[in-house]
Fold:
Amino acid sequence: MTDMSNDRIPLAALEHGTPFADRHVGPMPAELARMLDVVGVGSLEELGQHAVPDGIRERDLQMTLPEPATEAEALDELHDLAQRCRPHAEMIGLGYYPTITPPVIRRNVIENPAWYTAYTPYQPEISQGRLEALLNFQTMVADLTGVPVSNSSMLDESTAASEGMTLVRRAGRAKSPRFVVDTDTLPQTISVLRTRAEPLGIEVVMADLSEGVDGLPEGEFFGALLAYPGASGSLRDHEAVIAEIHRRGAMAVVAADLLALTLLRAPGEIGADVVVGTTQRFGVPMGFGGPHAGYMAVRQGLERQLPGRLVGVSVDADGDQAYRLALQTREQHIRREKATSNICTAQVLLAVVASMYAVYHGPEGLRAIAARTHRMAAVLAAQFRHAGIEVVHEDFFDTVVTRVPGRADEVIAAAKRAGINLRRVDADHVGISCDETTSRDRLALVWQAFGLDTADLADVDDLDARTPDALPKALRRTSEYLTHPVFHQHRSETSLLRYLRRLSDSDVALDRSMIPLGSCTMKLNATAEMEPITWPAFAELHPFAPAEDAEGLLQVVSDLEGWLAEITGYDAVSLQPNAGSQGEFAGLLAIRAYHHDRGESEREVCLIPASAHGTNAASAVMAGLRVVVVRCDDSGNIEMDHLRELVEKHRDDLAAIMITYPSTHGVYEDTVQDVCGLVHDAGGQVYVDGANLNALIGLARMGKFGSDVSHLNLHKTFCIPHGGGGPGVGPIGVRGHLSPFLPNHPLQPQAGPETGVGPISAAPWGSASILPISWAYVRMMGSDGLRRATLTAVAAANYVARRLDEYFPVLYTGSGGFVAHECILDLRSITKDSGVSVEDVAKRLCDYGLHAPTMSFPVAGTLMVEPTESENLAELDRFCDAMIAIRAEIDKVAAGQWPADDNPLVHAPHTAASLVGEWDHAYGRQEAAYPMGTSMAKVWPPVRRIDGARGDRNLVCSCPPLSAYEE
Structure:
């Protein structure tokens, strides 16, 4: 036995345990050495010197960040910050309400990596679980709204309303640029609508529709937005107004409270063309504003105009029912500036929570929750009337507005002392919103805040018995909803638990396999980062509560803004954009506002390389800019001569160029500073898409090498999990001259500059409740850890490229043959020789227990691979070995050993059921299911290859009816 007694390690070295970076970065030192040997360099630093152009690489870059904390230390600090938050009983309303997340859903969805580490279901055969959950969401929304087609979530209610506005404009025939908005619409939605409308030349016309048809303006308009119920709580019958809107050749968008619709006539029944809103109160915590799943549903005939994602029902190769994303689910990448929307992410994880809330409660449970909420409001109002306090509206669902001349501030302050936040409408009016958590005791505290004492109060039970509902008879719902069996089968926790487990077992997420999706950065989402997001101190804050209530979370915001500015070299950061697409939009609005402020409103041309993300072009159009495409050369780089030609041609009207760096082709282009210089010399601004920031941190900073603005995908580089396709956070960093034009918010002055472009999200700080994830990541990694993560990600990509190049040629490389953090494998000649397509390879990887890389983006017939820094050598080799084995299978097809129409590639993936019974294939069962031997990690796809074309031709986007099961 070895005597270790004299090999003492100093206490200082032992005190903090294993650094978090050692947990986050996958390869151990010996593994990394082997990887670097294959790449052909001696160290990570040498790799950085070879791969990153000298002109932008900042030697010995020291980012001013705190020294890295351990997981325990970071959680302690976050706990201290949480202690500085003071959630109250939130009765502010305005689209945000306290709700009860069933613990079985919180633990088994929100806190379950099988759900939160999944990505967008672009490989539907191994995404059937989240697709079924989203189909439930679509069915829930379609049933409650009374229109037949719902998408699988929007970013928030205000974004959904804005998308509704642009949808009816392009789908309608009216030539007018005017869009009518009900004055009783949520104030944040009105502001977001104005932000979205102005660059598109849409005129927002406010109208008091409490007057019914008489409130509509004279003249033409292309659409109108009506609130149901209104922001004030007022409940009105819009049927006649909608009929008049239709008579005048326009379309009606209705913003509806989904919980209220369990008691109220569905908007589709009163003529709505489009229905929008939020599902927040279906079990999703307020979280100081998000993330929440907005929704949009449309009448028949508008489904092909629907933005975002749509889950449809098709069949697999055996004719069995299977789910997939339908229609133009990535249309912004395909149609670019002609896209109907720039939205690329949804709010999948939150949509799953909301759908499971409906599955767990069922129609009876939801109706009971709504009825209880309404009765609390009705009794609240009755007591006010009994005490002689005026209630403004006779008809309402959950919100009561009282008139207290000159006393509003006094009442608000008294309620706050009692632990309740109410809404200050103005100096004379106070709003009170009830919800599923409202109790008799809370009502008593509200009455006391209004100055009512025991002598003023009637007995609550007696008052309840004598008080009718405040729902107009004409608006009471008689139609059924949520009739599908899924909303009736899982009322016990045991049943729901098993349902959730069955669905998650039908998916491949990061808990089962690396997900090497290029351009998506599927890295470790550490448990320590995730833990704080369900803490009540963060989760139960209302976004419009007084800022002092959220002191701790606002410190998280402030810290993160400062750290991101330091990391990127920008001067200011806004965390409001709640998706990368929204960040692009906000950044381009800042550029446009800057030019307008300088009296150069003619600058409207946005140059975009042919290789760029499709969202770039879509965002530019949304921001009122005109897209001009810059050609790329054979190496995937910007063609500099063409850029010079375009810059000269548009010298007087050039607004900006949008580039992605490293490029969408996974290469560090060495001309980036020349590109920036050319555009700046012509008076334009430079937008660098931050999608690939994971290849830059600690090596180069966009704000220092020539960029003026970038969005930063926190759900890529900074560890917020993708959640099946959302949530995301896409903040923007800007140089100082653009900082006056960052987003702001009408209900929280602290959220942005007074001179800002307006809000682009419903909530002041966007998806605030998940910002602690990225805060924890930066806090635990520190400057050196972040740099190490970047270099390791680059090393992993180059290792994969070197190992696979002789089997699948790497399409683009930079100087010295190096790639950045991702590489593109070219299968086009292989397909030509063998007939095996890139889709065949992607589906065959399912049989190997692996998720496929990104298919045919940015180049058709290729696979884009991004391994990230979090995967260890064993997992990288598992992927590479599988790809090499698949190449051997392709060679068998090309050589005629397997028929072109009967081989394991064209029939992939193989389900367990497909192996049972008669087998008449040219290859064996084991070759089908266990290509690497029976010891391999096996994931059984629940369905075989899905017929996509059939699904688009025969669109089914809600749960099939009972008759389908009878058949």
User: Anything to note?
Assistant: The domain at 124-358 is CATH 3.40.640.10 (Aspartate Aminotransferase; domain 2). The first helix runs from residue 11 to 14. The chain has 32 helices and 25 strands. The radius of gyration is 28 Å.
